[in-house]
Amino acid sequence: MPTYTTTAGVNALLPDGYGPLVIQSTLDESVFARIATTVTTGSAEYRIPIVAVDPTASWVAEGAEITPSDPTFQELVVTPAEGRRVDDHQPGAGE
């Protein structure tokens, strides 16, 4: 998909190969992009599991029975906006 650019007095289409060159070099230099996890999905929702309550841990006397406990999980449902990235540099981009 071509990208439109506007420069004083110049309107042109960039070939598809130019956009990734600019974007990738910017992402390589970004501290946040280095630690971020990028997820590509074609579905309308993306579900992220979250540990809401950790299992309990405690010291147990030698020979005593260990009482097992399980973590409690919740889910965060993210609905991506079509054609936009959450990291767009526009007011309200993540809303």
Order of helices and strands: EEHHEE
List the strand order in the largest sheet: 1-2
User: Beta-sheet strand percentage?
Assistant: 25-35%
Number of helices: 2
- Contiguous runs where pLDDT drops below 50 for at least 5 residues: none
Structural class: alpha+beta
Biggest pleated sheet:
2 strands, antiparallel
For the terminal residues, how far apart are their CA atoms? 25 Å
How many strands in all? 4
**Overall geometric form:** elongated
Helix content: 10-25%
Question: What is the typical, i.e. mean, pLDDT?
Answer: 75
How many domains make up the 3D coordinates? Answer: 1
Task: Walk me through the structure.
- The protein has 95 residues and is of the alpha+beta class.
- Helix content is 18%, strand content 26%.
- It has helices at 18-29, 31-35, and strands at residues 3-7, 10-14, 46-53, 72-78.
- A hairpin with a 2-residue loop joins strand 1 and strand 2 (10-14).
- It starts with a strand and ends in a 17-residue tail after the last strand.
- The model has no long low-confidence stretch (mean pLDDT 75).
Annotate the secondary structure layout.
Layout: E1 3-7, E2 10-14, H1 18-29, H2 31-35, E3 46-53, E4 72-78
Antiparallel strand pairs: 1-2, 3-4
